[in-house]
Amino acid sequence: MSNPVRLAARAIILHRGRLLLVNAWPGGVSDLWCAPGGGVERGASLPDNLAREIHEECGLRIRVGAPCLVNEFHDPGGSFHQVDIYFRATITGGRIDPEWRDPAGVVTQRRLVTEGELRTLRYKPDTLPEVAFGADGRLARALYDPLEPILR
C-alpha cells in the first residue's frame, strides 16, 4: 500500500518588514529554515489548521489571509510526498519568544529575518524570498474556497 500525500498549511508572516522562519529539525540536526506551519487535521479548514500550528510552534495568534503559494515536494528515494499551501498571515497576539517550546518538540528555533538575511540561509521552498517579499514589488493573490462540504 502506498503512502498518501501529506497536506500542510504554512504561513508567510511579515512582521515589521521581517519574515518569520522556523527550524523544524529536532535537536538542531539541520540548518534548514522554512515558514511555520504543519500538517492539517481532517474536519478543520486550512486556515483553522494553520492558526493551530502557528500557536503550537511559535506561541502566536494570527489572522490568516489569502493563499499565496502551493508548493509540492517529495523524497525521490523514499515514499514521502507533501503539498504545502501557503497563506499570508498577520500576528494578532503573542510575541516571538525564544523561550517558547513547541509541545510536539518539532520546532526548536524561530526567528525574524530580512530579505537579505534570508538569502544567506538554507531555506525551502526556493521561491520563499519572492513569495514573502514580492517580485518587482507585486504580490500575487490566489483564490481559495475554505472547506466546502460535499453536496449529496
Describe the structure.
There is one protein chain. With 152 residues, this protein is α/β, with parallel strands linked by helices. It has one domain: Nucleoside Triphosphate Pyrophosphohydrolase (Alpha-Beta Complex), CATH 3.90.79. The protein has helices at residues 46-58, 115-118, 128-133; strands spanning 6-15, 18-23, 32-33, 37-39, 61-74, 81-93, 109-113, 122-123. The strands form two sheets. Strands 1, 2, 4, 5, 6 and 7 form a six-stranded mixed sheet that branches. It has a two-stranded parallel ribbon with strand order 3-8. The radius of gyration is 15 Å and the shape is globular. The two termini are 29 Å apart. The mean pLDDT is 87.
Task: Give a quick rundown of the structure.
With 152 residues, the protein is of the alpha/beta class.
Structural class: alpha/beta
Based on the coordinates given, report the CATH architecture: Alpha-Beta Complex
Beginning-to-end CA distance, first to last residue: 29 Å
Uncertain runs with pLDDT below 50, 5 residues or more? none
The shape, in one word, is globular
Summarize the helix and strand pattern as letters: EEEEHEEEHEH
Total helices: the number is 3
**Average pLDDT for all residues:** 87
Instruction: Specify the biggest β-sheet.
Output: 6 strands, mixed
CATH class: Alpha Beta
CATH topology: Nucleoside Triphosphate Pyrophosphohydrolase
The CATH H-level homologous superfamily = Nucleoside Triphosphate Pyrophosphohydrolase
Radius of gyration: 15 Å
Helix content: 10-25%
Taken as a percent bin, the fraction of beta residues is 35-45%
Count of the separate structural domains: 1
The total strand number stands at 8
